[in-house]
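User: Here's a protein and a ligand (FE2/S2 (inorganic) cluster). What would the complex look like?
Assistant: Let me lay out the input and then the predicted complex.
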Amino acid sequence: MPDANKKKTATIKPVSPPPAALSQADDNTQVTRRSFFSWLSLGWLAFVAATGGFFTMMLRFFFPNVLFEPVQTFRAGYPEDYEAGEVDLRWKAKYATWIIRNDEGIYALSTTCTHLGCTPNWLVAEQKFKCPCHGSGFRKTGINFEGPAPRPLERFRIVLADDGQIVIDKTKKYQQEKGQWGDPEAFLKV
Ligand code: FES
């Protein structure tokens, strides 16, 4: 017979959560970790965007948009630098201009073909400008005589500066077909 007075001893076992609760806790931990990394990524992206914007603004500040327009007016030396009967090519590449001296004076021809804008070449042997694109030909005066070019080459304003140098002003053009080559500044009498 069991002893009723016998002192009962209880063993306290550690209470462990049920497996379902454990898995939910894991899930919660994972969710928390996931959202932490999401926020971290968002924060990082925001930081990168802000830094990028800042450096873009700095670059715009130090290198602003500047429109480099080709030079329209230039000094071309002294009249004595040009020989009568010669087509001077020294300003062709830089200023798209030929300077030509004849017995009466000097004029500045545009190197732009009046057909579709290519750049003709001066052919010394044939004494003509020949356009490589569609074959238009121009006399030394700039008058067109072959190919599809519909009109002569244009001339630029040419004057003498106070120091005696030739000044070419490309903002002012003269067209032969409009009778403008007779303008006093379309031809320099020297
Ligand atoms: S562009 Fe010169 S001939 Fe056509």
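Summary: The domain at 73-189 is CATH 2.102.10.10 (Rieske Iron-sulfur Protein).
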